[in-house]
Amino acid sequence: MSGPRDDGVRKRRVWLHLVPGRFRRFDAGAEPRAVSIYAAVVRQLVTRDHGGDDPGFRAVYVLDGAAAPACDPGKIDPEPRRPFSADLKAALTVALDDLPPVTFVPTRAAAFDGRSPGRVKNRGALVTLGPIDGARRRVEVGANLWIDGRAATWLTYVVRKPDGAWRVTGTTGPIAIA
Questions:
Q1: How many distinct structural domains can be found in the chain?
Q2: Structural domain of 100
Q3: For residue 7, is it within any domain?
Q4: In this structure, is residue 23 part of a structural domain?
Q5: Is the pTM of this model over 0.85?
Q6: CA triplet 59, 164, 130: central angle to 5 degrees?
Q7: Which residues face 140 on adjacent strands?
């Protein structure tokens, strides 16, 4: 008998992302493009665009699924149409392992100590991501970072891939800060 053997074993390709001093393994089923883009956005929000001095986040909660319009402060409670895939969540968690622990939550309320719009539990931040809009080497991603009712940011990032790695290069449209 010729041809490939089907023994019921599911095979997956794994891709590597090398960071100086680190070895990271990602599952190819997670779509590396989406993982890299969303990782750049979450990292930018949590490490740079949090609105002031380093807040010392102990946890990062990510709303499970792209929610439109994540960048609109008039709609502070967007709900995702469908959750991110298990592969994307696992790969994104690995890609962000240099940040405080990342946890995906099904609703915004799941990240709060009290009722929404309250303070994020565990001295954390809640990140809401919008859909990836664009193609090739330039995309836009609406995003929101929520700490409490007096500390939040809504914006749309421009994310580019100029040299093989996706990076936030700026913003487009309005920015709102609470």
A1: 1
A2: 14-177
A3: no
A4: yes
A5: no
A6: 45
A7: 133, 158
